[in-house]
Structures are given as structure tokens and as C-alpha cells.
Fold this sequence. Notes:
By secondary structure, the protein is α/β, with parallel strands linked by helices.
Amino acid sequence: MTTTRHKLFTPGPTPIPEQVMHLMNESIIHHRGHEFSRIFSRVSQDLKYLFQTEYDVLTLTTSGTGGMEAVVANLLCRSDRVLTVNAGKFGARWADICRAYGVDFIEIEKQWGHAVHPDEIVDYLKQYPKIKAVFLTHNETSTGVTIDLKSISEAIHANSDALVVVDCISAIGGIPLKMDAWNLDVVITASQKGLMLPPGLAFVALNDRGWKAAAKSDLPKFYLSLKAARDSLKKDSTPFTPATTIIRGLEAALSMIKEKTLERLWFEHQVFGDAVRAAIRALGLSLLSRQPSNALTAVIVPEQLSCKAIISGLEQNFGIIVSGGQGHLKDKIFRIGHIGFYDISDIIGIISALEIVLKSSGWQFEIGAGICSAQQILQQLSVRKQS
Ligand SMILES: *Cc1c(COP(=O)(O)O)cnc(C)c1O
């Protein structure tokens, strides 16, 4: 038993607010009773606000990948060809799922850390005019890159009939997303990142074009049938036993988000992202991402330092958990998550702890340089609150 409090700074799962924990601690409810119907009806409405959509948002009991798989299985036909973008581990997952379902895909490969540009997608769509859907990752969690989703969606619709499908799992609640205004046909997210909940729920919304494609789909599905989920949603219910405990927490988490407003959350995440990036640069380190994300920051570890030592130094001395790199970036980068339930003192805490760990590893910089840069940016938050 250590005396240090455990603090997650990972891009999923993320810290859970106390009021959410309290609700999840209440005694278990039955999923066919009135109380559950009331909660499910309320969260399904509030999820529309989160997605910025008028369409139904379906709640599935599965991790985020289950939501992605549900979309492939429900949207596509065996004969379809789709476009995916591999700019990191999660973009590559779209191709993995398509492969598992025997769906033909063309994959745009980007160097990890780079963002796909709308013109590149349009070039492929012109070369392969029969593409049924483009599968995107709003925020690539393995590299800390956010794509320009609005422009990409506009470019796809202006140049093709392809559906725009987006994994927004590590973006929603922290990075601006407007499903209807941006004409996104399918949006997927999950519970354990910006929603400040435990892992276990995925959320999927389709617009009319998405449902039209779904009506023709001939791929196998049973547990992940979106039509079954939508039919049940009409009765404020789910086809199978849902994760009732997390759905209870969801009611509280969505209330918090509504109370704060998405605009304010997006602004706070912008400030946190700017502050962490400024600190990293002030410490003489560099970012992996060419188009950095406000959900997390991927930091390149210089040759002379050990990535493992930095990560374990943060954990052993401060109880702070950050993530390492994935795939070929293992031991090359570490990733600081700042999407979800974080505040100014959390951001100051992680930067300060990082400075102490870097100093003890022999990295040369003026102690306090990171904090100083971050504070200048973090001031924007308190100033705005008082005005
Ligand atoms: C976390 C994450 C997922 C889903 O992961 P699960 O472990 O299945 O919940 C998918 N895409 C992105 C971009 C993610 O960050």
C-alpha cells in the first residue's frame, strides 16, 4: 500500500468525478424497470447534445472498438470497397476490422505524427469513384494528432457520394465536434475518455444517409445490430442487458457537461493543450504531432534519456500515470492525456512533476521553465471566469 494518490493522465481511461462515482455506487437497478427507462431516456437525449445531432445516439455495452465494429458490420455490404486512413494505431484498426469482415479497403498510409489532408482523400476518391465510405479518426490517440474534420467532411461530400464515418472516441467532449453541421454520416465514441466514465460503453449515431446504407447491409451481426438497438431505444430500452451501472454514471457525467457547456469545455481543453505544449517546448523537448491535439500531448524522448525511466519516475514519485508509445513508437514517446476531468491544478501538477523527473534524469533546462510557460497560458481560464 503506497501513500501516494494514484492520478491518471492517460488518454483513456481518464479520472472519474466524485459525483459520478457516487451514483455508480448506489444499489443496482433492473434494466427492465421504470427507473432504468427514465435514466436511459434522459441520457439518450443528452447524448444528442454531446454529438450535436438531431439523430438517435445508440448506447452499446462494449468498448469503443465494439462501436467501430458495429459500424462496419451494420453499414457495409460484402461487395463494398472503402477508404481508411492509417496515421496511427487507431486509424489502422479500421482496416483491421474491414479485413476481419472481408470488406475490400484501400488504406492511405501517413507517417505517424502527421495528419491526413482533405486533398489527399479527394485524390483517392477521384481515383476510386466507387468508394462507399471513408473511415476516419478524429483524434489519433497513438500520435496526439487531430485532423481537420470539418474541412475533410466538406471535401468528401463535395467530391463523392461516400459516407463519412468518424471514430471520435478520444475527441468528444474535448475537441469541437458538430455531427449535423459538419455533415458527418456516422459518429462513434466511447465512455472512458472525454465522458469521464469507466470503460464499457460505446455510442453510435447515424444520419439518414447512414441508416439508408444500413438497411442494405448484408454483413453478419447479432449482438451489435444497430437496428435492434434503435428499435429498443424507441421504448427507452436496450436489446440485451446493458451496463446499467455505467449508464447511471453517464446521467451525471452528461449533466456536468451540459451545465458547463460544450463551448466552455472545448475552450478549457484548448487552453490545457496550449499550456502543456508550451511547457514541453520550454523544457527543450519536442512534440511528435505536426497537428497537435488538445486531448493529449505526445512527447518525443531524446536519445540520451530513457522513456521507461521517465514513465516510472512519474509513477513512483508522484503516483502519476502517463502512457508510453504504441507500435513502433514504444520507448520513443510518452503521452500525457488531458481530455476529461482535469483542472488547472492538475495541469500544473503534471508539468511540475515532469520537470523534477527530467532534472533527476540529467536533462538540462532551467527548473521552472515549463511551469512558467504553462502558467502564462493557464491564466486565460481564471481571467475569463471572473469577467
Ligand atoms: C480508445 C480509443 C479507441 C477504442 O478503444 P477501446 O479500447 O476499444 O475502448 C478507438 N479509437 C480511438 C481513437 C481511441 O482513442
